[in-house]
Write a structure and sequence with these properties.
Main location: membrane
Protein name: V-ATPase proteolipid subunit C-like domain-containing protein
Family: Belongs to the V-ATPase proteolipid subunit family.
Oligomer: single chain
Number of helices: 7
CATH class: Mainly Alpha
Radius of gyration: 22 Å
Order of helices and strands: HHHHHHH
Structural class: mainly alpha
GO molecular function: proton-transporting ATPase activity, rotational mechanism
CATH architecture: Up-down Bundle
Number of strands: 0
Keywords: Hydrogen ion transport, Ion transport, Membrane, Transmembrane, Transmembrane helix, Transport
Length: about 180
C-alpha cells in the first residue's frame, strides 16, 4: 500500500493538504487542459461579441469600415488559438501521466506525478485567465477602433497599434504557460 493509499483510504486526514493530495494527479492535469481551452474560447467569444456589435453598428453609418475592421475580429480569434496550442501541449504531457503505472505503487513517484499535474493545472489556469482578459481587452479596443474609424478614418492605424499591444497579452500568457508546462516533464 502506498502512502497516498494510506492517507486517502484510511480517513487519516491532517487538513486541506490531504484533500488535495488525494485527488488523482491526472484529474489536475486534465483540469488544466480544460481551463486553458475553455477560458481562452470564452475570452475570444466575448471579444468577438464586443467588437462585432460595434462593428455592425458603425457600419450602418459608414459601410466602408466593414472589411477593414475585420482585423479586430481576427485578433480576438487568435486568443482562442493560443488556448488550443497550450491545450495540445498539456494533453500530451497528461498522456504521459496516465501511462505511468508506478505512480500507484511508489509514494515518491506519486508525489512527482502530483507536482507535474499541479504544474499543468497552473499552466492551464494562467493561460486561460490571461486569454480571457486578453479577449476582453482586444474586444473593447476593437470596438473603439470601429467607432473611431467611422468618425475619423485617420485614427484607424493608431488604434490598431494599441490593439496589437492588447493582443500581445495573450501571447505573453502562452509563453508563461509553456514555461510552466516545462516543469511537467
Amino acid at each position: 500500500m502506498s502512502a497516498a493509499d494510506f492517507v486517502c483510504y484510511t480517513q487519516d486526514y491532517q487538513g486541506w493538504k490531504d484533500i488535495f493530495y488525494c485527488i488523482e494527479p491526472v484529474s489536475w492535469a486534465y483540469m488544466g487542459v480544460a481551463l486553458s481551452l475553455g477560458l481562452s474560447i470564452i475570452g475570444a467569444a466575448w471579444g468577438i461579441f464586443i467588437t462585432g456589435t460595434s462593428l455592425v453598428g458603425s457600419a450602418i453609418k459608414m459601410p466602408r469600415i466593414k472589411s477593414k475592421n475585420l482585423i479586430s475580429v481576427i485578433f480576438c480569434e487568435a486568443v482562442a488559438i493560443y488556448g488550443v496550442i497550450i491545450a495540445i501541449i498539456l494533453q500530451t504531457r497528461a498522456g504521459a501521466l496516465i501511462d505511468n503505472k508506478a505512480m500507484y505503487t511508489d509514494p515518491k513517484v506519486y508525489d512527482e506525478s502530483l507536482f507535474k499535474a499541479y504544474a499543468m493545472f497552473g499552466a492551464g489556469l494562467s493561460v486561460g485567465l490571461s486569454n480571457l482578459f486578453c479577449g476582453v481587452c482586444v474586444g473593447v479596443t476593437g470596438a473603439g477602433c470601429a467607432l473611431a474609424d467611422a468618425q475619423t478614418p485617420s485614427t484607424f492605424v493608431k488604434i490598431l497599434i494599441i490593439e496589437i499591444f492588447g493582443s500581445a497579452l495573450g501571447l505573453f500568457g502562452v509563453i508563461i504557460g509553456i514555461i510552466q508546462a516545462g516543469k511537467a516533464q
